[in-house]
What does this fold into?
Amino acid sequence: MRRVLSLFTTAVLLAGSLALSGCVVVPAHRARVWVPGYWAPAHVWVGGYWRYR
It folds into this structure.
């Protein structure tokens, strides 16, 4: 009985420490965004291109 209580206590303490440790957040990679083509001033067509957001 004493051994079961010891294992239970250890499991509860381990679960509590994991719950309090929080999440590991990995920063997102830079996303590529497609910018469609458009007409610029003076009737110049600017083609579409990829840019980083």
